[in-house]
Each structure stands twice: as C-alpha cells, then as structure tokens.
Design goal:
By secondary structure, this protein is of the alpha/beta class. 30% of the residues lie in helices and 22% in strands.
Length: 341
Amino acid sequence: MVVQTTAPGGVSAAKDGSAMAEHYVAYLRWDVREDWKRLGEQARDGGPLYPFAFGSGLRWFKKLIKDGTILWIVSAPLYKSRARRFEYRLPPTLIAQLTVASVKDGSNEPQPRKVHPEQYRYVAKADRSRSYYLPVNNAFYALTEIEFVNQRGQRRRIPHQPTGRFDPKHPYAHIPQYLQNVARLAPGSEHVLESLAAQVRGHRVLFLSYAREESGPGKGDYAALLIEQLRREQFAPWLDMTFVPQLEPDERYVDRELEQILDDGMRQSSVLVALTGPVYRSHSWTSREWSLAKKWADEGSLRLLQVPVGGELMDPSLPSVQPSDPTTTARAIRSWWEGQT
C-alpha cells in the first residue's frame, strides 16, 4: 500500500544530498491511525509526531523503503453513529510526511488486533526533525489529480467516483482501494502532495460557499473559474463540485451525509469566501453554511470574506472584495488574506 512520488519542494531529501529521495504514499486505516496517535501522545518528548512510525506487513516493504525515503501517510476518516445506525466515509486526508530514519524488522507475531507499529512485519521509523504531522484536511482533489505509472509504463488515475455501482452514502469509499498496490507517480505529478501539504501547513485552505443559480454552472461557471485562479494564488480551495463526487441526475445525497461533508470542509478551512447575492441569502443550504461560518468566525476559528456577485452582501459590517473577473478577484482575495496574516 505504497505509492512512489518525489521530494517536497523539489529538493533532495537524501541524507547526503547527492540523490533525489524516493517518495511513497502509504494508506493507513483510520482506527489504526487513532491507536498510533494515542501511542504518540503517551510518548511525548518535546513535540510528538503522529504517526511517529509506520508499520507494514508487505513482504517487499523493506526493499523499497530506505533511509531518507519520504512516506506520505493518507487515511480516510470513518464515522459511525449507533443511535442513527449509519456509517459513512468522509474524504481522505493527508496525515503526515515522514522522512524515514531507519527500517527494521518488527515482531509480526499473531495479534487479535495490531495496535502498535512494531507489531507489523516491518517498521519505518521517522526522523522527527525532518517530518511533520498535518491537521485533518481534504486530500480528495489532490489524490484524483495525481497520475501513477506502473513498471510497464501504464498510467492510471484515481477516479472521482468508482466505475461500477456508486453508493451516495459512501462517496469516498473507493479511494483506499487504489492505494493498496505499489505504484509510482508519473513525471509531472510530483508537486501535487507538496502543494497541498504546504497550503495546509500555511493555513491557506479556503472554503468557497456559493449558490449555483448565481455563480455555478450555467452562470458563467464563475465559482469553478475562481477556484482555478485561487489555486494559482497558492490556496487550497474547497468547492463541492470538485471535492464531492457528482451524482447522476436521478441520484441524490442523503442530507445528513452531505451536511457532515460540508461542515467538515468548513471546519478544516481558515477562511470562507461567500459569493453572495439574493439567491445566496434565500437558499437553504447557503444560508445554513453562512450561519455556521458566522458562528465559527465569532469564535475566532474562521475568517469570513464576501464577494457580492449578486450585488448584495450578507453582512455589510464584515469584509468584502468587489467581484470582477476570476483572475482579478482571486488576486484581491490573496491581498486581503495577506493583510490578515
């Protein structure tokens, strides 16, 4: 369950600096991640790193992962509710970038449930001075933008949704399936995880709230075009059309699942940009997003910025930038953000 890529920032991570470090993506089950996080909390030594090591049972793991190798750890949050008896998977998240200090043999002894990295066949220990842990984020767009290439030179990409039957209750459940085999990043894809990690670490995750009737498909696709320009301005923008798999016309998401996905998208963001207007004000979904964002802004955990594409502001006392073409608006948002930080 590893995927090869390149060094963050395009620089060598090899210890001697003479060769480009090999990079891999390793998938980690959410419940295992929770176990390893608790172990890290128990072993505090002036700044714990979660996960502080990675255990694997793959027989070829030790041949691939070496001193100086970069491991990008990915997981997919799985939430359950006993009362409502539903279970659904939220978007995959990039957990950590680990620079491997050493790989050693683990115990690999039969266990009813392996809760420690060293209970696996091989253990990759992290060099904590060159590794970091990321807060929960949405890595769905990044993972579906990457191209992988196998030993025969064949390329593939993780699809936005499975090619077979699609279950709206589990829109991201297919992602882990594509991270179970060894695959190398195709040339040109190496900067995707680097950019996401840098934007998450730099608190440049942005949630775009909008009403499709005012700025979505059929209205010049303003929201989608703005998202592309915001990426050029070094933001990691969150947009439902790119971060939530789109359904067929006769399908729909269960409101509870969609609410949780959107709420988590806002919670993981540093700023919410609202494309406001009369439709935005009256629409039930956008009104809900605004109310929740306003609450978090009052608590100091989120910043709000309005772009009155429909000519109306939700709250004139809050900051805004005047709408223009997507390129100019994205630059104005960047200038406003830099003034805040």
